[in-house]
Specification:
- With 177 residues, the chain is an alpha+beta fold.
- Helix content is 24%, strand content 37%.
- The protein is built from four helices and ten strands; from the N terminus they run E-H-H-E-E-E-H-E-H-E-E-E-E-E.
- Strand 7 and strand 8 form a beta hairpin.
- The N and C termini lie far apart (34 Å).
């Protein structure tokens, strides 16, 4: 029976972190680099294990997303993966349900970057339809390649935000979104 455990990064054992990283490498077929790993750390982890083996994972880290001129404390989802041999069993959904609870408890908006829209849409996430930007020391930088990859989870203070407004995140090493 799969078990979901929610832990802060500093509560996750070195062995489990190594298992999570190995899962990312396999699930993303070598396309998960050190910057992606760094983005996954520093927040909360929903770790799904079965028989003592990590089979799915999702993380949420704190970021600020600006919708138009309004900043939102956002729970940004990173490192979502399920072991390839265990996909379509609801394990990723279990991890996301735990992450969504954290987002709705501790933040005002959820955000993530993906090309897997259908998975997240069925969990209540919505595709952002406005232009995307990155906030840098030099100002806003347009990120048109990200326009179709950002999704949000609206609730509470973010329920009425306009999905066609501009949205911006802060710059960071690797992929900004």
């Amino acid at each position: 029976m799969p078990r979901v455990e929610v832990l802060r990064t500093d509560e996750v054992s070195a062995r489990t972190l190594a298992e999570i990283r190995a899962l990312m490498d396999v699930a993303f077929e070598g396309e998960f680099d050190d910057d992606d790993w760094d983005h996954t750390l520093g927040g909360w982890h929903a770790v799904v294990s079965d028989g003592g083996v990590v089979v799915a994972h999702a993380a949420v880290v704190a970021r600020t997303l600006h919708v138009g001129d309004r900043p939102f404390p956002a729970g940004y989802v990173e490192g979502v993966a399920t072991s390839p041999g265990r996909q379509r069993e609801g394990l990723g959904s279990l991890a996301m349900a735990a992450v969504d609870e954290i987002i709705q408890r501790d933040f005002e908006l959820g955000g993530l970057g993906t090309g897997e829209w259908a998975f997240y849409e069925r969990l209540g996430w919505e595709r952002w339809r406005g232009e995307t930007f990155v906030r840098t020391d030099g100002g806003l930088v347009r990120t048109p390649d990200e326009d179709d990859g950002v999704m949000v989870l609206r609730f509470g203070p973010s329920t009425g935000i306009d999905l066609t407004a501009p949205i911006a995140c802060e710059a960071r090493p690797g992929d900004d979104w």
